[in-house]
Write a structure and sequence with these properties.
single chain; alpha/beta; six-stranded parallel sheet; binds NADP nicotinamide-adenine-dinucleotide phosphate
């Protein structure tokens, strides 16, 4: 069955936008939560660290599109700082957006899925969790926790008909990646990295969207608690 109500956080840009477009093309009724207003249909200005904003937007989505069946947590904030120079405020904001944002959105949406006896939760984490990343301790810590949360929720809510999986993307051509390149944070250019990527190209937001589309489908009902790397072979 298609036509579920799907929420994509961070759906205004990059990977999230491609996911929102793909789920809509698959026949889902898609709403987007993002910091900035956008022309995307059913988009809501929501900071995922703010539970009140999430709850208000969710009420509108339920009224307009029906109960939530698919949740994709894609809103993310990166950051680069030597650990000795990392302020607690910067640490906390990155953990807030990347981890607590997932906590809030999942907890607020789960009642709809439990009621329906069906749900799909897909968390976009990061390939940096495979081996760590210097100068990104806060980001990698948050994304690693999202992977752990994914596995625990999969066990807890499998009996309720809800699957929970994570996609840790690596090296996807989005504004986030290009900002990192401009600020010289990649340890080389995107072109240099392509030469170190087994499939010899940068990832596209659509690569993540295609995986997400499958994980949201009926056919993926026997896949849960998994981290599905989409990274061109950079991590195996
Ligand atoms: P992006 O283009 O910067 O998109 C991220 C979106 O999330 C932006 O629209 C951003 O809004 C929004 N956002 C940030 N904080 C938010 C908040 N508190 N509440 C609601 N929305 C918020 O980056 P992307 O590359 O597509 O990243 C998407 C996800 O993939 C992120 O979780 C990222 O960590 C993950 N990821 C990306 C890569 C990669 O290679 N690109 C690799 C690993 C993981 P603003 O633009 O207004 O800040």
């Amino acid at each position: 069955m298609t036509g579920r109500t799907a929420i994509v956080t961070g759906g205004g840009s990059g990977i999230g936008r491609a996911i929102a477009e793909r789920l809509a093309a698959d026949g889902h009724k898609v709403a987007v939560f993002d910091l900035q207003p956008s022309e995307i249909p059913n988009s809501h200005v929501v900071d995922v660290t703010d539970r009140d904003q999430i709850d208000k937007a969710l009420s509108l989505v339920r009224e307009d599109l029906g109960p939530v069946g698919v949740l994709v947590n894609c809103a993310g904030l990166d950051g680069t700082k030597r650990f000795t120079d990392l302020s607690f405020e910067a640490w906390r904001r990155v953990i807030d957006v990347n981890l607590h944002g997932v906590f809030h959105c999942v907890q607020a949406s789960l009642p709809d899925m439990i009621e329906a006896g069906w749900g799909r939760i897909i968390n976009i984490s990061s390939s940096s969790t495979h081996s760590g990343q210097p100068y990104m301790a806060h980001y990698v810590s948050a994304k690693s926790a999202v992977n752990g949360l994914t596995k625990s929720l999969a066990l807890e809510f499998g009996p309720a008909g809800i699957t929970v999986n994570a996609i840790p993307p690596g090296f996807i051509d989005t504004p986030m990646l290009r900002r990192a390149e401009t600020r010289n944070l990649l340890g080389g250019t995107v072109e240099d990295h392509i030469q170190r990527t087994p499939v010899r190209r940068v990832g596209r937001p659509e690569d993540i969207a295609a995986t997400c589309s499958f994980l949201a489908s009926e056919e993926a009902g026997y896949i849960t608690g998994q981290l599905i790397g989409v990274n061109g072979g950079r991590n195996t």
